[in-house]
Design a protein that fits this description.
This protein is of the alpha/beta class and about 350 residues long. The chain has two domains: about 160 residues, D-Maltodextrin-Binding Protein, domain 2 (3-Layer(aba) Sandwich), CATH 3.40.190.150; about 130 residues, 3-Layer(aba) Sandwich (D-Maltodextrin-Binding Protein, domain 2), CATH 3.40.190.10. It is built from 14 helices and eleven strands. Helix 3 packs antiparallel against helix 12, helix 6 crosses helix 14 and helix 10 packs across helix 14.
């Protein structure tokens, strides 16, 4: 009888194993692995600045605590990285894209080089929203938005598809602004160096968060002037700086600008390739959400003078659904406004 009771007790213990002793397939997979964050732009710019703190803290919030490395795949304003992520990257949960903000909307913009369906990416979320600015050097004659609409401005382009080029071309098409774009600059640091050297007079569509953290001395010393801010919402730092949407004369123009500026609402997005295993994708999304409120991460961001105004992956998808549902006439006018070649 005693032997039987001992046997029953042993059997019951086997069926009541503690939770920590149970196998976790996600943790088992990630343990000892390295996740690559693929930044779709050059080192040293704003997207790299945000990818770095994510890489330092995200791993400890993922089951199995994988290491995280940062790699770079610049080209065509992240289209190269997005196409790779969608068509060629392994679907194993070890590749995360840190893509430029317009990538979810390039098919809406009619970009033929966008060989992906943005709704099939697994969007983890965005670290922040963004407001961009039009800055000019102190030597430039432009002091107001009206001056930009009437006085020729030589401005640096950060590349086809970037805010600097898209917003400048839209100002030309929608409002007749005599902006001359100079191409060939590889990212924000090169464009700002060109401004400092006097090769250009201004840069349009450059992130305010980057300017205030990396070029605070220019602001302090009056080396640049802020002419316009671009975003769906006015930035509290930029009281008195007019919005580019204020240039609109009709409701349709305002809608066109909403389509153009919408990517700023999720300006530092991170995504997984399509068909990433569901359990790993869910674990990475939970880890990313937890990262956005993690004290150590937020402290790192503050020390780096980077804003954290996150939105979740589901919110990115909802924003995409709303914009892709705009009237076809408004979408076509937006495409005409930002087309590189004259429509």
């Amino acid at each position: 009888m005693r032997l039987c009771l001992v046997g029953l007790a042993w059997f019951a213990g086997m069926n009541c194993a503690p939770v920590w002793a149970q196998s976790d397939p996600v943790a088992d997979f990630y343990r000892g692995q390295t996740i690559s964050i693929i930044v779709g732009s050059d080192p040293g710019g704003g997207y790299d600045a945000y990818a770095r703190p994510v890489s330092r803290h995200l791993g400890r919030l993922i089951p199995g605590n994988p290491a995280i490395s940062v790699k770079y795949m610049p080209g065509a304003a992240s289209l190269v990285a997005a196409n790779y992520l969608f068509n060629n990257a392994p679907r194993d949960g070890l590749q995360i894209g840190a893509l430029q903000r317009q990538i979810p909307f390039e098919p809406l913009r009619g970009a033929e080089a966008a060989r992906y369906d943005p709704f099939k990416f697994v969007w983890l979320g965005s670290v922040t929203s963004e407001t961009s600015v039009l800055i000019v050097s102190k030597a430039a004659t432009q002091r107001t938005p009206a001056d930009v609409l009437t006085q020729p401005l030589i401005a640096a382009s950060l590349g086809a598809g970037t805010d600097s080029e898209v917003e400048s071309i839209a100002m030309q098409r929608l409002h007749g602004a005599p902006i001359k774009l100079i191409s060939g600059y590889r990212g924000t640091p090169e464009a700002l160096l060109a401004l400092e050297r006097g090769e250009v007079q201004g840069v349009h569509g450059i992130s305010w968060s980057y300017i205030k953290s990396k070029k605070a001395d220019w602001l302090r010393d009056g080396a640049i002037r802020l002419i316009l801010q671009s975003g769906l919402q006015l930035h509290p730092d930029l009281a008195g700086v007019p919005s580019i949407r204020d240039l609109s004369r009709t409701d349709e123009e305002r809608a066109v600008w909403e389509l153009i500026l919408a990517p700023k609402a999720m300006s530092r997005p991170f995504a997984l390739p399509p068909d990433t295993p569901a359990d790993r994708a869910a674990a990475l999304r939970r880890a990313f959400d937890a990262l956005m409120t993690d004290p150590a991460f937020l402290d790192d961001m503050a020390k780096s003078q980077l804003e954290a105004l996150p939105i979740g992956g589901a919110d990115i998808t909802a924003l995409m659904q709303r914009l892709y549902a705009f009237p076809s006439t408004t979408i076509q006018r937006m495409r005409s406004a930002i087309a590189v070649a004259a429509p």
